[in-house]
Amino acid sequence: MADHIKHQIIKQGDNPLFVLVPYDEYIDLIRDEDLTIPHEVVEKHIMEDKTMIKAWREYKGISQKVLAKKIGISQAALSQLESRGTERKSTIEKLAKALGLELEQLNT
Questions:
Q1: What are the tens digits of pLDDT across the range 49-77?
Q2: What is the distance between the alpha carbons of residues 87 and 64, in angstroms, rounded to a whole number?
Q3: Where in the sequence is the domain holding 49, given as residue range(s)?
Q4: How many domains does the chain have?
Q5: How many CB atoms lie within 10 A of CB 62?
Q6: Cβ(81)–Cβ(52) under 8 Å?
Q7: Relative to the CA of 16, which of 2, 10, 55, 105 has its CA 20 to 30 Å away?
């Protein structure tokens, strides 16, 4: 029996135009697209030497006071995190959730 064809290529003449993929694979592909980091965030992180926490917070237009309250810490504690970063997974997870990000977008 012939193997199941996973992808179908649609051509016009000899030129491929489209590829049909299984729906689950398509969902995985577009999910990966959501894990981008906007140029403005990268610029703040690299050119202005800001932590990813601070770069994302500024990009999202959230004050330190509001973000600190969302994750249950003081504004002073958030200020320290923004100046030195953190490697604590639980803190990064809280920050990512509060900023509406995936963990991978904040933990670079």
A1: 999 999 999 999 999 999 999 999 999 99
A2: 19
A3: 39-106
A4: 1
A5: 16
A6: no
A7: 2
